[in-house]
Amino acid sequence: MSSRRHFLKAGAAAAATGIVFCSCGLSKSAHAQQDSRAKLPVTVNGKRVKTVDVHAHCHFREAGALLGEEGFKLQVSAINGATETYIDLSQRLAAMDAQAVDMEILSINPFWYNRERDVAAQIVKLQNEKLAEFCAANSTRFAAFASLTLQAPDRAVQELETAVRKQGLKGAAIGGSVNGVDFSDQKFHPVWAKAEELGVPLFIHPRGIPELNKRFAGNGWLDNTIGNPLDTTIALSHLIFEGTLDRFPGLKVIAAHGGGYLPSYADRSDHACMVGPKGCTADVKLKKRPSEYLKQIYFDSLVFTPEAIRHLAAQVGAGQIVLGSDYPYPWQLNPVDHILASASLSDEEKADILGRTAAKLFNLEA
Fold first, then answer.
1. How many C-beta neighbours within 10 Å does residue 227 have?
2. What is the pLDDT of residues 109-120, one digit of tens each?
């Protein structure tokens, strides 16, 4: 079968469900490497653990269609030349089984922040309805974060309320900023207040830093490799230094990709206002050291190795780490393995990271 015919056949299968999963061109060698990974059911010290991947993506054809051909490209654009495919439900479940993942918390990276508010709201409404419908029909394997029209905070508040109270969604996925405006800006306060009131988490997934695209050019896919973690680092740093986390102490934030660079360099943050007091305004008086705020943020485990998990847990606490893969992007095809292999973690800590912490955070059934 030609690649084009295969592409069309796979796309037709996906159309039946209305949901699009991006496999990002997994190679045969990548699939071969999966043979030795953990398998379901996952056990820790003989006890069954329900694994919950909080960092998994999808798209809906209908949402991209609202922006025409451009929207389609934004949803499923090629990743470093890899061929995109569309995976139906049975294929996604098979992939999850092979990854030893019992449940995914689906999210959609925001491609609508720079759109007019009514158009963006249409996209968000459609996506949240589709996510709710899909998860309700497959509730033992999927839950989801809502999308929000964050460029219009008043709409975002209403969308979050509807998503959680009426549609059964588990929080919201947001970018690292909105059209160059950081989340510490007071115009976003009503959204954080609503999330705090509802008791649901916000998943910060970076969208990169377009201003640095020229310097990211060249080998290494740097706009993603270092740009995305940098975007998260900036977002979290503003939430800390501008007092947003003090203003909303009950706000639950999950940071993708292990929180970017902040957990690896948090001690520098503790010295910033002492070394450079002119860079810290007197009207923002933090209630604790900047590094201490990391212990109230959740971080996914997408840091690849047992040693990186050891360091992350030492900095933020193992109880603040949740499982993440970035699937279907092939960053971490064995999301469970490096947790099980972490000699620095106790069995209880491994079970928490693999799923128990997420089950509490999202109020999931056992």
1. 20
2. 999 999 999 999
pTM given for the model: 0.89
Q: How far apart are CA 346 and CA 23, in angstroms?
A: 33
**Can you give the length of the chain in residues?**
366
- Rounded to the nearest 10 degrees, the angle between the axes of helix 153-165 and helix 189-198 is 10
Q: What is the pLDDT of residues 267-317, one digit of tens each?
A: 999 998 888 887 787 788 999 999 999 999 999 999 999 999 999 999 999
* Cβ neighbour number for residue 4 with a 10 Å cutoff: 8
- Residue ranges per domain, the chain? 105-361
Measured CA to CA, the distance from residue 116 to residue 41 in angstroms comes to 46
141-165: burial string, b at 16+ Cβ within 10 Å, e else: ebbbbbbbbbbbbebbbebbebbbe
Q: Which helix (H) or strand (E) holds 227?
A: helix 227-241
Top CATH class, 105-361:
alpha beta
Short-list 121, 161, 120, 101, CA closest to 301: 101
CB 77, CB 329: distance < 8 Å: no
Q: How confident is the model at residue 19 (pLDDT cuts 50, 70, 90)?
A: low
